[in-house]
Amino acid sequence: MAAAATTPTPQKNMAAWLTSPKSRPFAIADAPMPVPGPDEVVIRTRAVAVNPVDWFIQALGVIVPADGGYPAVLGCDLAGEVVSAGAHAASSFVPGDRVCGLAGAHGAGDFRSGAFQRYAKADRGLLAKISDSVSYTQAAVLPLGLSTAATALFQKDAMALPLPGTAAATTAMDNKDGAKKKVLLVWGGRTSVGSCGIQLAVAAGFDVAATASARNHEYCRSLCATWVFDYHDEGIEEEIVEALRGRECVGVFDAWSRGSVARCARILLKLEKNGSVSKGRKWVQTVLPGVAQVGEEVPEGVEVGYAYGSTLVRNEVGPAIWGKWVPEALASGALQCKPEPEVVAKGLEGIQTACDIGAMGWGTSSSPKLVVEII
Ligand SMILES: NC(=O)c1ccc[n+]([C@@H]2O[C@H](COP(=O)([O-])OP(=O)(O)OC[C@H]3O[C@@H](n4cnc5c(N)ncnc54)[C@H](OP(=O)(O)O)[C@@H]3O)[C@@H](O)[C@H]2O)c1
């Protein structure tokens, strides 16, 4: 077993604290220096991105338990350099490595290990080295979107698609027998989760059909979607069914999942009538954690899948995606850091600004991914 790796003189840590349910602004104050567990890596945070879950927790007082969860440190997306690594992580990460990853394992009941601090820790299975050509602000847009999309597409209890780089994916990519690739429909191709979903599905050997506002059709094509449809069009269901005539659709990845699940299910039923459903499997994969969050009547005959963005750390998907695919795909350009980052502030104080901007009109405009540089 490798010895734990550390830098000699750790600096003082500071965090943006959520001191009690619905408190604002975040309180900037000292925080304990994180100590890596055997599978963990401590990172000097250089850039963080904000996500809907961050401003939902702050505004609504959800997820963090009032009893014992506060004061909390939120934040999922970080990029920075490695400071120290636990014994199991030290063979993969050494001090000074440039990395991006997913912090804040809320699911594991630790509410003080989020990204919104100068020194944060992440599990080695949710962390990747980034090439020199990728800046910290670019890399910070990826972690939660990528983890959620990978969980949804590849986990066995979700869509269970072949992982990029596996024989099944490679065969589909090579397309040697001249057969057409199978198709995945990604609803909400301009969301952070959908942007990663398109890129992961392409890497896994699928042709992708995506939906987005008309202004984002070129954006989705730049991520290698083959077809793009405007979800505002009344006739979108028929348009998709017509476009995919003669093709085999493996399901829908609904990367929005807020009022769109039934529509995705109807499309699958129509595709089935057209003979375009792969192996009769009609599966709408949501980005919601469970049935209670769906809030729509889903037509019978269609299965609905759920996903929680950090569960891939406990199975083969985390290492395959974070450990192998992300570093290679970032270096080769197969993975683009999208949506584009917009640095809206510098310093931990700026995280409140970023959350406030993000919460304003969320989902109604194609805002860039909001990023804060941590100085
Ligand atoms: N389960 C988990 O662990 C987990 C983790 C992260 C996120 N999520 C969920 O994933 C979803 C996406 O989150 P995100 O952070 O990726 O979102 P985001 O990047 O903030 O999404 C913004 C985009 O949503 C698109 N959009 C709005 N309404 C839509 C609709 N009716 N159909 C399709 N696209 C629509 C817009 O695209 P256009 O500009 O093209 O209109 C907009 O640009 C949310 O529901 C979020 O709560 C779940």
From TrEMBL:
<dbReference type="InterPro" id="IPR020843">
    <property type="entry name" value="ER"/>
</dbReference>
<comment type="similarity">
    <text>Belongs to the zinc-containing alcohol dehydrogenase family.</text>
</comment>
<dbReference type="InterPro" id="IPR011032">
    <property type="entry name" value="GroES-like_sf"/>
</dbReference>
<dbReference type="InterPro" id="IPR036291">
    <property type="entry name" value="NAD(P)-bd_dom_sf"/>
</dbReference>
<dbReference type="InterPro" id="IPR047122">
    <property type="entry name" value="Trans-enoyl_RdTase-like"/>
</dbReference>
<keyword id="KW-0560">Oxidoreductase</keyword>
<protein>
    <recommendedName>
        <fullName>Enoyl reductase (ER) domain-containing protein</fullName>
    </recommendedName>
</protein>
<dbReference type="InterPro" id="IPR013154">
    <property type="entry name" value="ADH-like_N"/>
</dbReference>
<feature type="domain" description="Enoyl reductase (ER)">
    <location>
        <begin position="23"/>
        <end position="313"/>
    </location>
</feature>
<dbReference type="Pfam" id="PF08240">
    <property type="entry name" value="ADH_N"/>
</dbReference>
